[in-house]
Specification:
Blueprint lengths: L5 H15 L1 E8 L5 E8 L15 H7 L7 E3 L5 E3 L2 E8 L2 E6 L17
Antiparallel strand pairs: 1-2, 3-4, 5-6
Helix pairs in contact: 1-2
Length: 117
């Protein structure tokens, strides 16, 4: 059985989403003085879960790929590349140490650090 890299699957899924879905951005003002952006994605079916740990279909990959950002990704050759992790080291066969990017914050302003995980 031939396996595709995650990067290949995500690229294909993103292209499929752009071609087959209606994507619209709208500016929405709330009662505060900030401006929020809303992303609306139209598709032929509903996603089954918002849990990134049980992704089982391309539609879920498409939607959750716009919400969650991983520690690492893959380039076109399948090599791991840093995303939220600057670098990492394998300490043992079952333990890894990730050094996280600084200056990253969640939507509500909370700092992204090891205590979050």
């Amino acid at each position: 059985m031939r396996y595709l890299s995650l990067a290949t699957i995500l690229s294909f899924s993103a292209m499929t989403l752009m071609i087959t879905s209606n994507v619209a951005f709208a500016d929405i003002k709330n009662t505060h003085t900030t401006l929020q952006k809303e992303l609306r994605i139209g598709s032929k079916s509903d996603i089954l879960t918002m849990d990134p740990h049980v992704i089982a279909e391309s539609l879920q990959l498409d939607v959750l790929g716009n919400i969650y950002e991983p520690l690492v990704g893959q380039d076109s050759s399948g090599k791991l590349t840093p995303i939220l992790a600057k670098y990492w080291k394998q300490l043992s066969p079952t333990r890894w140490r990730f050094h996280l990017r600084e200056g990253v914050h969640f939507e509500q302003g909370e700092a992204f650090d090891a205590d979050v995980y």
